[in-house]
Task: structure prediction
Amino acid sequence: MNSDELMSILEKLHIPRIAYGIRELSAWDGFCILEAEGQWSLAYSSRGKVTASIHCESESQACKLLLEKLKGEFFKDGGILNTPEQMERT
Result:
């Protein structure tokens, strides 16, 4: 999987774009994948600064890790949080 494929998957899952960054820091606190000089990492950014980071062997590994993290954050009981239906119930 590459970053373009990951973006497509995340859009289909309705995970808000603001919740993550691909090749950039997330707009808010959140996970992102970054590439510098051919090296990939999964990072967590807070207030525009990387606060934690792990090295990945490839773009594919970074994408898979980000997808796992986002699914863990946004999915609960088999459904995505913050869908219009769930927002109406709150």
User: Anything to note?
Assistant: Residues 82-90 have pLDDT under 50 and may be disordered. Residues 14 and 69 are 15 Å apart (CA to CA). The first strand starts at residue 20 and ends at 22.
